[in-house]
Every structure is written in structure tokens, then in C-alpha cells.
């Protein structure tokens, strides 16, 4: 039984109450709305995060909420999204697993960061492994949500200091997931505190530039021991998103960073001969030929779309389209359903990846429509709804089916990304 606060936190109208199986629903917006209702069962108003999801995963859950709100004008969705943003910005910083670590020595002790217990590593199968401090995932004591900002968004507007340092944890990909999450909140609400927070996070991460590879790019973490694709793609995407949203006088700053990043990235060789992107660079600054995870094929798509909007260049969408088609070919089964190497059972990090690809593919489809992209988006959304959903409309990891229990906030928000993508494809 879920704590009552989880239900009280988000009071939805009867229009969004789940229907058992809802097997006959084909409208993509309705499907996404029902999945939003299910997602919120995991939302913990007291922490501002989704129970069972990691720190960066919660940023992605918030992003999928904002992506739905951008295209679904229903008052219920708009109000719900605004309440989530206003609550999370106040409550979540207390759950930052490693605040302020950038200001300490980069020495490590047995690969665990001194004084924290938070670490990210890569296993023998190329899977990312996140280790949280002891008791980090505990929900804590019961919280009366009537005392929290989610109950009164206007209270949050006054209370939120939105200090960028509160969102930094020493892993720059984590930081930038939150920056993109707050950009999404700004897109929905037009509240500049969210945009300013994203900008502040990004500026803090610029200190990670450059790596020792070609005098460019950012490190994965404050430890400065790995230059990987995801951190750099997120750096590109965040800079480009900000370029399209800040005041005209500040635009050039973000365009410059985005162009520096994409020029460096394309020179590294992380894009392999098949056209997909491997995980990162080895100690000799060469492609390490590690797994081409789906999210590494997706983040760059939205980054290039935004950069092309900010500073048009005929090559950006061409590069994005080639990567997208290569990824669809490499990662899809005979029914066009996506799979990562670890599937169907992946850890807490990789369980998020496929939805991020769907998100990027949606962004590309909107500006450079292609039947290949549309076919992939629709095939995955339909398979999720028909084969990967339980009686409460909760979504699991195996998009091709069968449903694998239990689902969690990470598997669900990832699959919801694909449902949202199908609305505009």
C-alpha cells in the first residue's frame, strides 16, 4: 500500500482516472494522460522525486511530464505539471546525493568518493552502476502534503531560491539532466526562475571543459577520468536549448558553447562506422567501442535540432537523421521495437535509456519528418500500450512484451516518453 501522501499530492480529475487495461484506447494523447496518472503514484511530494527512481532518473521523469504538458493543453495536465515543478524545485535539493563535491579534492578511495557514498561506475557488461549513500532511497517520515509547495504553487514561487549549486553532484551528466528538466519547466510555465536555474547549472558545468582529448569536451565527472558521449551530448543539448530561450544579448554565449561542443564531438570518432555512437573515449582518446546505448543516439538528436534552430547549418539535421536511422536499424527488432543490449532486464540506469531516444527522435521528426522515424515512434508506442502494460496502466521495461513485473518509476517514465512522442509524430 502506497503512503497516503503520494495520492494526496496529486489530485487528478476523473478525466484522468485509469481504466482497467484500457485496451481499446488508440488516441495517443489519452494514452499519455493515463500513463501520467500512473506515473504519479510513485511521486513523493516530501522529497520532490519519484520513489524508486534515482536522482537523475527523477529529472527525466519531470522532463516527460513537461513534454506532455507542452502539447496537451488540458487544464488538469497543465495544473499538475506546474505543481510538480513548484514542489520539486523546493523539496528535491535536500536529496542531492553529493552536494558540493566539485570543491573538494579529486582523490578517490577504492572508487568511492570520499565522504559521500555516491558513485557511478561501469560494469563488465558496459552497464552503468550507480551507488547511492546509505539510506538515500528511504522515503523518510510521513509528510502532510498540505504543508508543501505542491499544494500551493504560489508559495513555491516565493520560497524557491533556485540555487544552481544545490543541483550539482559531481557527475556532469546528472547536473545537465536537471538543467534540461528545468528548461522543460520553463517551456510550460514561462517562469524565468526555472530558466535561470538551468542557465546557472550549465555555467557551473562549463568548468569541466576541456578534457585531455583534443583540448575540448567535458569530463563525465569531477574525478576527470573518463570522457564519455552522454555528458558531452547533454552539454551540447543544454547549451543549444538555452540559446533559443535566453535574452538576445546572451544567445551568442550559448551558441558558441554548443558549436564548440559539436565540432569537438564530431572530431573524436565516437560515431562509429555504422553511424551509431559508442559510449566514450579510451585513455588514448580513441573510440572505446563500448555499447551503443539508445540514449546516446537520442540526446544528440534534440541537441542538433535546437542548435540548428539557434544557428542554422545545413549539416546539423543531416547528421541527426543519419544517426537516427542508424540507431533504428541497429537497435530495433523485426517489429521495429527498440531494445538495449541489456534487455529485457536492465539496471536502474539503463532502464531509462530507450525513452530518451524516443524523446530525441520526436524532436527530429517535428523538424525533419521521415517515414522511418514515424514508423519507429508509432511501432514502439503501440507495442508498449498493447504488450507492456498492467491493469493499472503501469509500464515496464520490455517494450516488445510480455510485461515484466514489477514496473517502477524509471521503466514507466521511459516508456511514457515513447507514448508522448507518438502524439506529434
Concise account of the structure shown:
By secondary structure, the protein is mainly alpha-helical. It has helices at 4-9, 28-39, 55-71, 75-91, 153-159, 172-189, 192-205, 229-243, 248-267, 294-310, 314-331, 353-367, 371-387, 409-424; strands at residues 43-44, 49-50, 108-109, 112-113, 119-122, 128-131. It has one domain: Glycosyltransferase (Alpha/alpha barrel), CATH 1.50.10.20.
Descriptive overview:
This protein is mainly α and 425 residues long. It has one domain: Glycosyltransferase (Alpha/alpha barrel), CATH 1.50.10. The protein has helices at residues 4-9, 28-39, 55-71, 75-91, 153-159, 172-189, 192-205, 229-243, 248-267, 294-310, 314-331, 353-367, 371-387, 409-424, and strands spanning 43-44, 49-50, 108-109, 112-113, 119-122, 128-131. The strands form three sheets. It has a two-stranded antiparallel ribbon with strand order 1-2. The protein has a two-stranded antiparallel sheet with strand order 3-4. A two-stranded antiparallel ribbon has the order 5-6. Helix 3 (55-71) runs antiparallel to helix 4 (75-91) and helix 12 (353-367) packs parallel to helix 14. The protein is globular, with a radius of gyration of 20 Å.
Amino acid at each position: 500500500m502506497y503512503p497516503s501522501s503520494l495520492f494526496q499530492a496529486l489530485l487528478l480529475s476523473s478525466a484522468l482516472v485509469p481504466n482497467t487495461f484500457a485496451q481499446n484506447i488508440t488516441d495517443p494523447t489519452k494514452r499519455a494522460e493515463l500513463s501520467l496518472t500512473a506515473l504519479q503514484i510513485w511521486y513523493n511530494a516530501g522529497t520532490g522525486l519519484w520513489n524508486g527512481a534515482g536522482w537523475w532518473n527523477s529529472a527525466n521523469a519531470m522532463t516527460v511530464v513537461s513534454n506532455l504538458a507542452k502539447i496537451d493543453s488540458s487544464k488538469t495536465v497543465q495544473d499538475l505539471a506546474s505543481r510538480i515543478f513548484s514542489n520539486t524545485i523546493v523539496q528535491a535539493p535536500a536529496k542531492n546525493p553529493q552536494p558540493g563535491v566539485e570543491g573538494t579534492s579529486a582523490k578517490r578511495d577504492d572508487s568511492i568518493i570520499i565522504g559521500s557514498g555516491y558513485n557511478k561506475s561501469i560494469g563488465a557488461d558496459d552497464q552503468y552502476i550507480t551507488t547511492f549513500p546509505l539510506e538515500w532511497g528511504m522515503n523518510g517520515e510521513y509528510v502532510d502534503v498540505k504543508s508543501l509547495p505542491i499544494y500551493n504553487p504560489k508559495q513555491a514561487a516565493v520560497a524557491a531560491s533556485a540555487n544552481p549549486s544545490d543541483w550539482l553532484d559531481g557527475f556532469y551528466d546528472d547536473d545537465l539532466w536537471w538543467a534540461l528538466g528545468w528548461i522543460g519547466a520553463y517551456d510550460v510555465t514561462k517562469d524565468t526562475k526555472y530558466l535561470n536555474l538551468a542557465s546557472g547549472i550549465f555555467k557551473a558545468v562549463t568548468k569541466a571543459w576541456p578534457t585531455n582529448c583534443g583540448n575540448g569536451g567535458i569530463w563525465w565527472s569531477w574525478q576527470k577520468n573518463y570522457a564519455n558521449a552522454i555528458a558531452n551530448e547533454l552539454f551540447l543539448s543544454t547549451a543549444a536549448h538555452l540559446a533559443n530561450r535566453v535574452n538576445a544579448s546572451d544567445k551568442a554565449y550559448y551558441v558558441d558553447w554548443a558549436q564548440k561542443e559539436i565540432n569537438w564531438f564530431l572530431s573524436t570518432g565516437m560515431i562509429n562506422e555504422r553511424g551509431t555512437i559508442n559510449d566514450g573515449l579510451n585513455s588514448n582518446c580513441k573510440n572505446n567501442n563500448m555499447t551503443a546505448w539508445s540514449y546516446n543516439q537520442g540526446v544528440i538528436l534534440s541537441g542538433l535540432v535546437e542548435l540548428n534552430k539557434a544557428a542554422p547549418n545545413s549539416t546539423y539535421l543531416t547528421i541527426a537523421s543519419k544517426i537516427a536511422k542508424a540507431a533504428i536499424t541497429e537497435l530495433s527488432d523485426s517489429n521495429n521495437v527498440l531494445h538495449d543490449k541489456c534487455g529485457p532486464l536492465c539496471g536502474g540506469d539503463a532502464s531509462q535509456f530507450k525513452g530518451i531516444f524516443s524523446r530525441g527522435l520526436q524532436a527530429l521528426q517535428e523538424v525533419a519528418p521521415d517515414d522511418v522515424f514515424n514508423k519507429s515512434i508509432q511501432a514502439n508506442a503501440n507495442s508498449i500500450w498493447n504488450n507492456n502494460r498492467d491493469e493499472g496502466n503501469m509500464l515496464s521495461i520490455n517494450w516488445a512484451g510480455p510485461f515484466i513485473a514489477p514496473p517502477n518509476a524509471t521503466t514507466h517514465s521511459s516508456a511514457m516518453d515513447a507514448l508522448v512522442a507518438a502524439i506529434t509524430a
